[in-house]
Amino acid sequence: RGWFENQRIIPCWNQLDKSGRKHQFGGNLLMLQGDIALRAMGADHDTRRLGRWTSTKLQGKNNCNTRLVSVYVPNNSRYGNQTVYSQHLAGLLSLGIIANPLERFWEDFWDQIDTWLEAGEQLIIGGDWNTNVQDEGFLLPFRQRGLYPVLSTSVITPPETNSRGSNPIDEIFASSTIDISQCDIDDFLRGLLFRKVVRRSNLVST
């Protein structure tokens, strides 16, 4: 929301969609502004090219690396051929994979998260999870990996981020080694679904 001398935009989308439509549901985008944009080391996307997540790594002092990740989980809607669920089902079939898109999402997602963690990276993961992010069953695998929810512990009363429900479906998770000094989220009716602000944290130093 303003002019920045340095800015980097990292989008991803379903590259397996051959429908030719001008509009595609789903996808992700990371936007880095200011000095932090200069620390970004390339971009990494969902390796199945479905646009389920995108990320970039920030390199800091003493080999302290922090990865920023933007995630979109398909809604469990199987009606219509334009839903993200249907897109991903068709995309997986084109790869010779017969699987439930949601089940395959979580299998692939945790494999990727574990790979990054095993490489010693700190993680900040912002997502539209399309499920109640306060559900203990949803939170457990994050906690088992040392990732804690930021919004629910930093925002007293999170606003609605879904026009068709009252449960929060957006959340940011961060490695316990990261000190988040500030974060914020905008409600659905204000137009910006998800705004992530991280300042004065140990993202790039030990």
Throw out a few tags for this protein.
two-stranded antiparallel ribbon; alpha+beta; 206 residues; globular; 8 strands; six-stranded mixed β-sheet; 4 helices
Write a structural description:
This protein is globular. The model is unreliable at 189-202 (pLDDT under 50). The chain is built from four helices and eight strands, in the order βββββααβαβαβ. Strand 4 and strand 5 form a beta hairpin. 28% of the residues are buried. The longest helix has 18 residues, at 101-118. The chain has a six-stranded mixed β-sheet with strand order 3-4-5-6-8-7. Strands 1-2 form a two-stranded antiparallel sheet. With 206 residues, the chain is α+β, with helices and mostly antiparallel strands.
